[in-house]
Amino acid sequence: RGCSFTYLVAACLSFVGILLIPGLSNKIIVPTRILNPNGAEQSGTFLRYPAWFSAFTSFFILGTILTVVPLSAGADLNISKKTVGTLLLVRALMMSCTLVGMGQTSWWHFRGKQIAIGALIGVFAAIFLAFTRSPVMIGFILVIVGVIVGQAYTNSIFHGVSGVAGKSWRVAIHEMIISAGLILGSISGGLAYGAFGITVAYLISAAILIIDFIVTGILLNLMFKREHAQGTLSQGMSRTGRITHAEQPPASVKQ
How many distinct helices (H) and strands (E) make up the chain? Predict the structure, then answer.
């Protein structure tokens, strides 16, 4: 009976959302596609690559959690179905709060270090999930997971579309990445849990997040070197321009 009521509420919310779509779509303004002076679209920020990779790995561990926690509730975790629902609700609420909080602030814009920090926190969260069996501790870790998933989602969509006129394709890439992470995480978590148990299932996610942290560090280092090289080149060209201008003879000499 409780399950039927839950599905009924979800169906009602979906129906209300469908009714709101026409009104919201009328308020959406699609900007004209503007090309830069060279005739080509701007590529945007290089931070989109570590942001996309972090979005994939964050949703990978999310897919693992959404699969493993319900499967292991009775056997390994010894928690009730109600507790499982509460834990997953807490995770979803924290993700929503993170999305709202990051949407109202701008300190994280174009800052790559916070992307790497989120990946590192995810590594420790996955390791703790692999070895803890306490419902309270699992709930605390799921709060952290909700934060890093919300952070990765926001970084992916912001840095993915920032600086480009045509944003629809970048949003499509973002959605494909998080969907792939969620699906592969669910498959990996289910197969690993069935074959090896809960510990191995979460350690796979930890390994994926370690790779994310390493790749993000490499990409941020490459971005720093490229920006430093461009800055040095700009300064050199500026100095050359000033010297050339200073060495030009006066107008009377030219004549």
Answer: 8, 0
